[in-house]
Amino acid sequence: MAVALFLVFAVIAVACAVNLVLQTHPIASAISLIGVMGSLGVLYLLLGGPFIAAVQVIVYAGAIMVLFTFVIMLLNAGAEKKTGRSQAARFLGVPLLVILLGLLSFVIQNLLPPTETVKFGQFTEGSPGDVGRVLFTRYLLPFEVTSVLILVAILGAIVLARKELD
Amino acid sequence: MPEAVPLSWYLILSATLFGLGAAGFLIRRNVITVFMSIELMLNAVNLSFVAFSYQFRQVDGHIFTFFVMVVAAAEAAVGLAIILTVFKNRATLQVDEISSLKN
Question: What's the total number of domains in chain A?
Fold first, then answer.
C-alpha cells in the first residue's frame, strides 16, 4: 500500500516538475509547481511528518503560490518569447541531464544499504507537539532569528514595491 | 515489488526534482518561471531532509525543513517585489533583456 502510494505521488511529482520546466506560460508552470508541492506533502505524511506535511500545503501550496499567481496575474505575463539557444545546449542538454540523474541514482542506490526501508508508522516523532517541543527548546535562538528575518523581508518588500510619492 | 519503500527511492526522487529545477533555472527565459524553479529545488532539498530525519529517527530534519520554508517565504516576498519593480521600470520579464548590470 505504502509502495503504491509512494510510486503514484512520486510519478505525479516528477511529471509536474517536467511540465513546469517545459511550459512556456508562467501560469501553467505555477499550477504544475502546486502539483509538485501537494504530492510532496503526501510523501511527508508517508515519512511520518504530519506537521511538516500540513505546513507544506498551507505555507507553500497556499501562501507562497498565491503570491506567485498574484504577481503573474498583476503583470499580465504572457508566454515567453523564443530566444536562440546554442546548438550544443539544444543537443547535449537533455542527454547530459539524464546521465547526471542516472549517475546520482546509481551512487545513492549503492551507498545506502537496501535494508534501509521506510515503513509507515515507525517514526512518530513528527507530530506538532514533538516538533514544537524541539523548536522551542533546542532551536529557540534560530527560531527567534527567523522572526527578525521575516520582519526584514516585509520591510524590504514594502520599500521595493511602494509607489514613488513625488 | 518490494514490501516497503527503500529510503534510497526518496533520495533519488529528491535528486531528480533538484536536477529538473536546476534545468528549469538554466533554460527558462521568463524571470517568474526561473524563480519558480528555485522553489522547486528548495522543495527537493526539503524532501531529503525529511527522509534523513526518518532514517535517524530524529525530528531535527523537520525543524530544518520548517526553517527552509520560512526562508523561502521571505525570499518569495522580496524576490517578487524586485520583479514588480523591474517590470515597472523595464516593462519586460525576459531575463535576457534585464542585463543592465552587465554593461
Answer: 1
Q: What is the ipTM of this complex?
A: 0.90
Q: Is there a contact between A49 and B67 if contact means CB atoms under 8 Å apart?
A: no
Q: Does domain B7-90 have CATH number 1.10.287.3510?
A: yes
Residue A87 belongs to some domain of the structure: no
Residues of B in contact with A142 (CB under 8 A): 67
Contact map slice: A 29-58 vs B, CB within 8 A = 29-30, 33, 36-37, 40, 43-44, 46-49, 51-52, 55-56
DSSP per-residue string spanning A44-111:
HHHTT-HHHHHHIIIIIIIIIHHHHHHHHHHHT--PPPP----HHHHHHHHHHHHHHHHHHHHHHHHH
Q: What is the pTM of this model?
A: 0.90
Establish if A29 belongs to a structural domain.
Answer: yes
Find the CATH number of the domain harbouring A107: 1.20.120.1200
pLDDT in tens, B53-96: 998 888 999 999 999 999 999 999 999 998 888 888 888 888 88
